[in-house]
């Protein structure tokens, strides 16, 4: 029986982000409060009787096998496993499931019986956790390609809280201790480094699960990539990345019954002179150990880039978090006319 504080905390966390649409099944789960939520977990999701529900979080998730399908999930952390209660849209997108998840089974309009798909990652199978830049997302890696999931929290607080809870739960696992490290001599210590491979900050938990955090070089690589996209107009030394945030770009769908808008996931990067939108691969990098070839697409693909000096105004919506921003730029045909003139007249 969980403590009153824990039940209250899980109830508070059981809220679907307002801007994301979910299926009937997940709306039902989000409507559960207090002990009803705990009973739902033990009656429908938990795999063993004596496991405890420790944390609940709503997040968009990506699977390694389907990197282009971002789906909403209710993430439940227990003392035995991490459960991803998935939106129905994922089931229809997944070809392997299509035989079972047919129209008859998934049609729950006139029924009180709801079907959903639950992906389970046992804590004993967990090998590493990669935390993304500025804690905007994290990737959980198991022992195969089927066991790699990225949670796109888009929120450093949610990422931090989940990682803390996961570490606490992993501490309860009874795993065999790692063998004693062998004393290395000077040459083996410094001679076996793989040249060219970026070393990230690693924290090896007592359960032998690695927690890997990005280091400063990753920001340097990103700054270099951004400067390349700017056609070398900016000196790399003076280029500072001021903001990196996972956001959505809003596309208005006209001609529909209601003026709906679709949200496309984008990475927004603000430098001291420009604003960029990238399509980012959140699931394939860094490469898992079993990967035999690099991913088909680069980690960052430029979608749009505008100069801050061409920014005319920023419109802000009045709704609560998440905030909607509209950037209005001056549409100048030959943007760099003045800059080129100055270079011609005054040399370098």
UniProtKB/TrEMBL annotation:
Q: Name one GO biological process term.
A: regulation of protein localization
Domain PLEKHM2 PH: residue ranges: 114-178
Has the keyword Transmembrane been applied to this entry?
no
The Nischarin C-terminal PH domain covers 241-347
Q: Does the keyword Metal-binding apply?
A: no
User: A single Gene Ontology molecular function, please?
Assistant: kinesin binding
Keyword set for this entry? Cytoplasm
Q: Where in the cell is it found?
A: Cytoplasm
Gene Ontology cellular-component annotations: endosome membrane
Output the PANTHER family linked to this UniProt entry: PLECKSTRIN HOMOLOGY DOMAIN-CONTAINING FAMILY M MEMBER 2 (PTHR46556:SF1)
- The entry's protein name is NISCH protein
């Amino acid at each position: 029986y969980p403590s009153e504080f824990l039940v209250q905390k899980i109830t508070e966390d059981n809220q679907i982000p307002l801007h994301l649409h979910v299926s009937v099944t997940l709306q039902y789960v989000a409507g559960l409060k207090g002990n009803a939520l705990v009973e739902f977990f033990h009656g429908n999701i938990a795999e063993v009787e004596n496991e405890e529900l420790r944390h609940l979080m709503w997040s968009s998730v990506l699977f390694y096998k389907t990197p282009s399908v971002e789906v909403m999930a209710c993430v439940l952390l227990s003392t035995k496993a991490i459960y991803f209660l998935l939106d129905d849209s994922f089931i229809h997108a997944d070809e392997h499931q299509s035989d079972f998840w047919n129209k008859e089974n998934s049609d729950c309009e006139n029924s009180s019986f709801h079907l959903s798909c639950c992906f389970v990652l046992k804590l004993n199978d967990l090998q590493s956790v990669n935390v993304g830049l500025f804690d905007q997302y994290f990737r959980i890696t198991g022992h195969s390609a089927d066991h790699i999931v990225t949670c796109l929290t888009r929120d450093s607080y949610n990422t931090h809280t989940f990682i803390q809870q996961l570490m606490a739960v992993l501490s309860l696992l009874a795993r065999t201790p790692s063998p004693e490290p062998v004393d290395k001599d000077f040459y083996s210590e410094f001679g076996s480094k793989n040249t060219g491979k970026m070393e990230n900050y690693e924290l090896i938990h007592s359960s032998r699960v690695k927690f890997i955090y990005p280091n400063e070089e990753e920001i340097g690589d990103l700054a270099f990539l951004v400067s390349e996209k700017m056609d070398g107009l900016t000196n790399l030394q003076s280029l500072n990345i001021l903001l990196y945030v996972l956001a959505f770009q809003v596309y208005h769908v006209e001609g529909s019954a209601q003026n709906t808008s679709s949200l496309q996931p984008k990475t927004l990067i603000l430098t001291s002179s420009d604003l960029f939108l990238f399509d980012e691969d959140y699931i394939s990098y860094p490469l898992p150990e079993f990967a035999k070839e690099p991913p088909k697409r680069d980690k960052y693909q430029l979608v749009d880039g505008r100069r801050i000096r061409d920014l005319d105004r920023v419109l802000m919506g009045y709704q609560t978090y998440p905030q909607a921003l509209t950037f209005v730029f001056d549409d100048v045909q030959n943007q760099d006319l003045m800059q080129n003139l100055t270079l011609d007249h005054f040399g370098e």
